[in-house]
């Protein structure tokens, strides 16, 4: 129920696909896209996208997330056979 600091978001792309790009970040609800962690990174090849290294233009790498917020991700472009898994590293903030 408290605030956490997300220090890293890793996206392991096991199957890359086409010309798609991925955004991920903190949003007010589970259906809103955001790019405060990862902004516009390619999903074309099998790889690991790391918010600390591959954050893009709008991504900041680490963010505070309150109990009323969500971490969301979205892919735009030709998704095709994309497969991946997200790993979130976070720390709770003491009250």
Description:
It is a single chain. It contains no helices and seven strands. The protein has strands at 4-15, 21-27, 38-42, 47-50, 63-65, 70-76, 83-92.
Topology:
Layout: E1 4-15, E2 21-27, E3 38-42, E4 47-50, E5 63-65, E6 70-76, E7 83-92
Antiparallel strand pairs: 1-4, 1-5, 1-7, 2-3, 2-6
**Low-confidence region ranges:** none
What percent of the residues sit in helical stretches (DSSP H or I)? Answer: under 10%
Question: What is the count of DSSP helices, taking H or I runs of 4+ residues?
Answer: 0
If you average the pLDDT, what whole number results? 91
Radius of gyration: 13 Å
Please outline the major beta sheet.
4 strands, antiparallel
> What fraction strand?
over 45%
Number of strands: 7
Shape: elongated
- SSE run: EEEEEEE
Q: What is the straight-line distance between the termini? A: 11 Å
| Helix-strand makeup class | mainly beta
Short description:
The chain has no helices and seven strands. With 95 residues, the chain is mainly β.
